Protein backbone atom coordinates (compact mmCIF):
# COMPACT_ATOMS: atom_id res chain seq x y z
CA UNK A 1 0.00 0.00 0.00
CA UNK A 2 1.28 3.42 -0.90
CA UNK A 3 1.32 6.30 1.50
CA UNK A 4 0.46 9.95 1.34
CA UNK A 5 1.67 12.79 3.52
CA UNK A 6 -1.13 14.97 4.88
CA UNK A 7 -0.45 18.63 5.62
CA UNK A 8 -2.65 20.78 7.81
CA UNK A 9 -3.99 23.97 6.20
CA UNK A 10 -0.98 25.64 7.86
CA UNK A 11 1.30 23.34 5.82
CA UNK A 12 2.44 21.51 8.92
CA UNK A 13 2.84 17.75 8.31
CA UNK A 14 0.32 16.02 10.55
CA UNK A 15 -0.18 12.49 9.31
CA UNK A 16 0.76 9.74 6.93
CA UNK A 17 -2.24 7.87 5.53
CA UNK A 18 -2.87 5.31 2.81
CA UNK A 19 -2.99 6.87 -0.63
CA UNK A 20 -6.51 5.57 -1.05
CA UNK A 21 -7.64 7.44 2.03
CA UNK A 22 -5.92 10.60 0.81
CA UNK A 23 -7.62 10.16 -2.54
CA UNK A 24 -11.00 10.07 -0.77
CA UNK A 25 -10.15 13.29 1.09
CA UNK A 26 -9.54 14.91 -2.26
CA UNK A 27 -12.69 13.44 -3.82
CA UNK A 28 -14.74 14.74 -0.88
CA UNK A 29 -13.23 18.18 -1.32
CA UNK A 30 -11.53 18.04 2.07
CA UNK A 31 -8.01 18.32 0.66
CA UNK A 32 -6.16 19.40 -2.43
CA UNK A 33 -3.24 17.64 -4.09
CA UNK A 34 0.16 19.31 -3.82
CA UNK A 35 2.17 16.51 -5.32
CA UNK A 36 1.23 13.28 -7.03
CA UNK A 37 2.99 10.11 -7.99
CA UNK A 38 2.87 8.52 -11.41
CA UNK A 39 0.81 5.59 -10.11
CA UNK A 40 -2.84 5.48 -11.03
CA UNK A 41 -5.73 4.93 -8.62
CA UNK A 42 -9.14 3.81 -9.81
CA UNK A 43 -12.48 4.07 -8.08
CA UNK A 44 -15.84 3.09 -9.58
CA UNK A 45 -16.17 6.42 -11.30
CA UNK A 46 -12.80 8.14 -11.26
CA UNK A 47 -9.28 7.41 -12.41
CA UNK A 48 -6.57 9.69 -11.09
CA UNK A 49 -2.94 9.85 -10.19
CA UNK A 50 -2.20 8.79 -6.66
CA UNK A 51 -1.61 11.76 -4.38
CA UNK A 52 1.81 11.90 -2.73
CA UNK A 53 1.18 15.04 -0.65
CA UNK A 54 -2.21 16.59 0.14
CA UNK A 55 -3.14 19.83 1.89
CA UNK A 56 -6.25 20.00 4.07
CA UNK A 57 -8.60 22.77 3.07
CA UNK A 58 -9.56 23.50 6.65
CA UNK A 59 -7.18 23.87 9.56
CA UNK A 60 -7.70 21.18 12.14
CA UNK A 61 -6.62 21.45 15.73
CA UNK A 62 -4.28 18.69 16.78
CA UNK A 63 -4.18 17.89 20.48
CA UNK A 64 -0.57 18.30 21.59
CA UNK A 65 0.70 15.17 23.22
CA UNK A 66 4.19 14.91 24.50
CA UNK A 67 6.45 12.44 22.75
CA UNK A 68 7.88 9.87 25.14
CA UNK A 69 11.64 10.03 25.27
CA UNK A 70 13.20 6.85 23.96
CA UNK A 71 16.56 6.00 22.47
CA UNK A 72 15.00 5.45 19.06
CA UNK A 73 12.94 8.65 19.15
CA UNK A 74 16.04 10.72 19.95
CA UNK A 75 18.18 9.01 17.30
CA UNK A 76 15.50 9.54 14.66
CA UNK A 77 14.78 13.08 15.65
CA UNK A 78 18.43 14.00 15.17
CA UNK A 79 18.77 11.69 12.19
CA UNK A 80 21.65 9.73 13.79
CA UNK A 81 23.84 12.81 13.67
CA UNK A 82 26.35 13.56 16.41
CA UNK A 83 25.54 16.94 17.96
CA UNK A 84 29.22 17.72 18.45
CA UNK A 85 30.96 16.69 15.23
CA UNK A 86 27.97 16.12 12.86
CA UNK A 87 29.19 12.66 11.90
CA UNK A 88 27.13 9.50 12.27
CA UNK A 89 26.18 8.89 15.87
CA UNK A 90 24.19 6.17 17.54
CA UNK A 91 24.63 6.84 21.24
CA UNK A 92 22.77 9.28 23.45
CA UNK A 93 24.52 11.96 25.46
CA UNK A 94 23.18 13.86 28.43
CA UNK A 95 24.36 17.41 27.87
CA UNK A 96 24.39 18.06 31.60
CA UNK A 97 25.74 14.67 32.71
CA UNK A 98 23.47 12.53 34.82
CA UNK A 99 26.27 12.18 37.37
CA UNK A 100 26.03 15.94 37.83
CA UNK A 101 22.28 16.14 38.13
CA UNK A 102 21.29 16.12 34.45
CA UNK A 103 17.83 14.81 33.68
CA UNK A 104 16.77 12.20 31.16
CA UNK A 105 14.50 14.61 29.29
CA UNK A 106 14.26 15.99 25.77
CA UNK A 107 15.84 19.23 26.83
CA UNK A 108 18.98 17.44 28.02
CA UNK A 109 19.53 14.59 25.56
CA UNK A 110 21.26 14.65 22.17
CA UNK A 111 22.85 12.13 19.82
CA UNK A 112 26.61 11.66 19.98
CA UNK A 113 29.08 9.46 18.16
CA UNK A 114 31.08 7.02 20.28
CA UNK A 115 34.22 9.14 20.02
CA UNK A 116 32.61 12.38 21.18
CA UNK A 117 30.63 10.56 23.86
CA UNK A 118 33.80 9.05 25.30
CA UNK A 119 35.60 12.35 25.15
CA UNK A 120 32.77 14.17 26.84
CA UNK A 121 32.10 11.56 29.55
CA UNK A 122 30.95 13.35 32.70
CA UNK A 123 32.21 16.77 31.71
CA UNK A 124 30.30 19.95 30.99
CA UNK A 125 30.43 21.51 27.54
CA UNK A 126 32.02 24.60 29.07
CA UNK A 127 34.85 22.48 30.48
CA UNK A 128 35.60 21.15 27.02
CA UNK A 129 35.09 24.40 25.16
CA UNK A 130 32.29 22.75 23.19
CA UNK A 131 29.04 24.36 22.16
CA UNK A 132 25.73 22.97 21.06
CA UNK A 133 24.90 24.37 17.64
CA UNK A 134 21.17 24.44 18.42
CA UNK A 135 18.86 25.13 21.26
CA UNK A 136 17.50 22.16 23.15
CA UNK A 137 13.78 21.94 23.51
CA UNK A 138 10.95 19.48 23.39
CA UNK A 139 10.13 18.13 19.95
CA UNK A 140 7.11 19.37 18.06
CA UNK A 141 4.76 16.48 18.72
CA UNK A 142 3.05 16.24 15.36
CA UNK A 143 6.19 16.64 13.33
CA UNK A 144 8.22 14.30 15.51
CA UNK A 145 5.48 11.71 15.49
CA UNK A 146 5.91 11.08 11.81
CA UNK A 147 9.68 11.30 11.71
CA UNK A 148 11.23 8.02 10.75
CA UNK A 149 11.76 6.07 7.61
CA UNK A 150 8.45 7.23 6.23
CA UNK A 151 9.68 10.79 6.58
CA UNK A 152 12.23 10.20 3.87
CA UNK A 153 9.98 9.83 0.83
CA UNK A 154 11.83 12.01 -1.69
CA UNK A 155 8.63 13.70 -2.85
CA UNK A 156 7.91 14.83 0.69
CA UNK A 157 11.18 16.52 1.40
CA UNK A 158 10.27 20.03 0.36
CA UNK A 159 7.19 19.85 2.60
CA UNK A 160 8.79 18.23 5.65
CA UNK A 161 12.18 19.96 5.59
CA UNK A 162 11.06 23.21 7.23
CA UNK A 163 9.73 21.19 10.16
CA UNK A 164 12.80 19.12 10.81
CA UNK A 165 14.79 20.28 13.76
CA UNK A 166 18.12 18.89 12.70
CA UNK A 167 18.13 21.35 9.82
CA UNK A 168 18.94 23.98 12.40
CA UNK A 169 22.33 22.56 13.09
CA UNK A 170 23.08 21.81 9.46
CA UNK A 171 22.69 25.51 8.82
CA UNK A 172 25.44 26.36 11.33
ZN1 LIG B 1 30.92 13.16 17.31
Give a written overview of the molecule.
- The protein has helices spanning 19-27, 71-77, 114-120, 125-128, 141-145, 157-160, 166-170, and strands spanning 3-7, 13-18, 31-42, 47-56, 91-94, 109-112.
- It is elongated.
- It has a 4-stranded mixed beta sheet with strand order 2-1-4-3. A two-stranded antiparallel sheet has the order 5-6.
- The chain has 172 residues and is α+β, with helices and mostly antiparallel strands.
- The two termini are 38 Å apart.
- The longest helix is centred in the N-terminal third of the chain and has 9 residues, at 19-27.
- It has 2 domains: 3-63 and 148-163, no CATH class; 71-128, DNA Binding (I), subunit A (Orthogonal Bundle).
- The chain binds zinc ion (ZN).
Amino acid sequence: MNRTLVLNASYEPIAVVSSRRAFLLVMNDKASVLSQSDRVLRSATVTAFEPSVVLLRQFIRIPRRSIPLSRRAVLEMYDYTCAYCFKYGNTLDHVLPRARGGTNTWDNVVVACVKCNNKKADRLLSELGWKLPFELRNPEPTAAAIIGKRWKEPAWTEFTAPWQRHELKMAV
